[in-house]
From TrEMBL:
Gene3D superfamilies according to UniProt: 3.30.450.40, PPM-type phosphatase domain
Coiled-coil positions: 174-201
Domain called PPM-type phosphatase: residue spans: 393-605
Residues annotated as signal peptide: none
Name of this protein: Serine phosphatase RsbU, regulator of sigma subunit
UniProt keyword list: Coiled coil, Hydrolase
Location of the GAF domain: 47-195, 216-375
Length: 607
């Protein structure tokens, strides 16, 4: 085996090309001319694929090498063949990816940084015995390092039939080709890295927008997975821990049939929680798992039967990266990225990007879970506070309706009806401004307070005065409006006091409508003043509807327009049961957007 001496630092090849031509024997000038064209092609190559074809085809043809390889470092310890010609598939499989320390011309060239040659089969097998089954017959081999300024990135491997000894001019020219190849790869890699970083930043921005757009995290994660494919992976799958199983919430691939195949694999062969490798190990350790090369041996080692191996092979898995989803010190899921039919491979530089996305997704999931728990608590509180049904009282028909908004948080609407004795009833409808648990808690306090004060003195003036005093002593962050009425059948009248709330509307027995007075005061607890009291007749056959502002308010519209719609719709309530009539009224008047909660109470005097 021969190892060439130190070569000059890689540099543009024109001066060295001229020197090589000057020194060349006449018989080699045509070879050198072809190699000169190769260096020219490399100087303008714009992709790794183009470089690969130039080396294993044009450069190899120029020197008459039927077998050629182009190998690049995956990492410090591993070489991967990215370009190959002249070997059968079964011969090539052994060398798709191999340790740098393996005795081959290419690996020796990478380790030494120098050109390596072996002339004839005897010399080849003496120094590279592992090539015995790969290169048959009498062969000579050359390994040319691809050197950059600070390291050797790979090598070109060439094999010739017989005892082929290259001339010094040919070797020097091949070294020029190798240097030009290294420069081309560095240039292309730099451009691709810049484009890749720009694309990653753009993707993270898009993903952040998706993650912030909704609290429905499963739908959001599915969109994020689809964003990733095929930009940064052939596959993207997201799994959340559910007891001893991983629940797949999202999987994306450009081919829907492949997605179904992946789901079949996941359902039939769920990951083993006790496995020392795979997603569960990422869950246990909280560390990312990079499998740069998925080999057939790996698939067979983890499979439980031939069917699992068959499906895995059909998916063409070749590289995978799994990162944890963690929040508040706990791992609750994983994101897995996979390269398959594209033939690409993940590297260590992809890990930081994947972890960045996983952190953003984990925060979004955690926030959504917290919001879901908070919402559930608020809904439960609201459900416990609002009456399931209003009381059945002689001489009265009562109905209530509550519709939550289309938003993700509960509001503070509340209502009730209280029998007072002597046939009288108190009815109230209120609204705590704001949403969520705080609004629901304030609503529960206000409803309880109204009932308590009504038990002491049910008159509208007394109840509102007591509420004002309570809120003055114990201020609330939320404004509260309230419409409170007492209906007295003995006097055929109702009394009403209003603290900043929309007025109720009456439907008379003759189907005319009449509006109760607008509020003459501020919401409860705002200022200390005497509340006004209004009286109106309320006879047998009359119907009253009280409601919150969600029924009448619309953006960019005067509230009087909403009140007008109520007046126009109420005559249709006659002749129907009050429950049915009230539901129909609210459904007819409520905005399709469901932008606010609606609470409504209807009272019809029947005797």
């Amino acid at each position: 085996m021969a190892v060439s001496g130190d070569r000059p630092d890689p540099r543009p090849g024109q001066p060295r090309l001229l020197d090589a031509f000057d020194d060349a024997a006449p018989g080699t000038s045509s070879t050198l001319a072809r190699l000169a064209r190769v260096t020219s092609e490399l100087a303008t190559a714009d992709s790794v694929e183009a470089v690969k074809q130039i080396i294993v085809t044009h450069a190899a043809d120029a020197v008459g090498a039927p077998i050629a390889t182009l190998s690049l470092r995956d990492d410090e310890d591993t070489l991967r063949i990215i370009g190959l010609r002249g070997l059968e598939e079964h011969q090539a499989d052994r060398w798709r990816r191999y340790p740098v320390g393996t005795a081959t011309p290419s690996s020796r060239a990478v380790v030494t940084g120098k050109t390596v040659t072996a002339v004839g089969r005897t010399e080849m097998l003496e120094h590279f015995p592992e090539l015995r089954t790969t290169l048959e017959g009498d062969q000579s081999v050359v390994g040319l390092p691809l050197r950059s300024a600070d390291h050797t990135m790979g090598a070109i491997g060439l094999s010739f039939p017989g005892d082929r000894r290259l001339t010094s001019a040919e070797l020097e020219f091949l070294e020029i080709v190798a240097d030009t190849c290294a420069q081309a790869l560095e240039r292309i890699n730099a451009l691709e890295e810049a484009a890749n970083q720009t694309a990653k930043l753009a993707f993270l921005a898009d993903a952040a927008g998706e993650l912030a757009s909704s609290l429905d995290y499963e739908t959001t994660l599915a969109r994020v997975a689809r964003l990733a494919v095929p930009r940064f992976a052939d596959w993207c799958a997201i799994d959340l821990v559910n007891g001893t199983r991983l629940h797949r919430v999202a999987v994306a691939h450009v081919d829907p049939a492949k997605v179904e195949l992946a789901r079949t694999l996941q359902d039939a062969y769920p990951p083993d929680p006790d496995s020392p490798v795979g997603p569960w190990e990422v869950v246990r350790s909280g560390n990312p798992l990079l499998i740069a090369e998925i080999t057939p041996e790996m698939l067979e080692a983890v499979a439980t039967d031939e069917e699992q191996v068959r499906i895995a092979r059909e998916l063409q898995l070749c590289s995978a990266l799994t990162v944890p989803l963690a929040a508040r010190g706990k791992v609750f899921g994983v994101i897995t990225w996979v390269y398959a039919e594209s033939g690409r491979h993940f590297g260590s530089d992809d890990v930081a990007f994947a972890e960045d996305l996983a952190r953003r997704a984990a925060v979004a999931i955690d926030n959504a879970e917290l919001h879901s728990q908070t919402l559930a608590a608020a809904v439960e509180l609201q459900r416990a506070v609002l009456p399931e049904a209003l009381p059945a009282l002689p001489g009265w028909e009562l109905a209530s309706h509550y519709s939550p908004s289309g938003r993700t948080e509960v509001g503070g609407d509340f209502y009730d009806a209280i029998p007072l004795g002597g046939g009288r009833i108190a009815v109230f409808v209120g609204d705590v401004m704001g949403r969520g648990v705080h609004a629901a808690a304030a609503m529960a306090q206000m409803r309880a307070a109204v009932r308590a004060y009504a038990a002491v003195d049910p008159s509208p003036e007394a109840v509102l005065r007591s509420l004002d005093i309570m809120l003055a002593r114990y201020p609330s962050e939320q404004l509260v409006t309230l419409l409170y009425l007492v209906l007295n059948p003995r006097h055929d009248e109702l009394m009403v006091a209003n603290a900043g709330h929309p007025p109720a509307v009456l439907l008379r027995s003759d189907l005319s409508t009449e509006q109760l007075p607008w509020a003459d005061g501020a919401p409860l607890g705002v200022g200390r003043r005497r509340r006004g009291l209004s009286r109106m007749s309320f006879r047998t056959g009359d119907t009253l509807v009280a409601f919150t502002d969600g029924l009448i308010e619309r953006r960019d519209e005067d509230i009087e327009q909403g009140m007008k719609r109520v007046h126009e719709a109420m005559p249709a309530m006659a002749g129907s049961s009050l429950d049915t009539a009230l539901d129909h009224l609210v459904t007819q008047l409520r905005l399709e957007l469901h932008d606010d909660d609606v609470a409504a109470v209807a009272v019809r005097r029947t005797g």
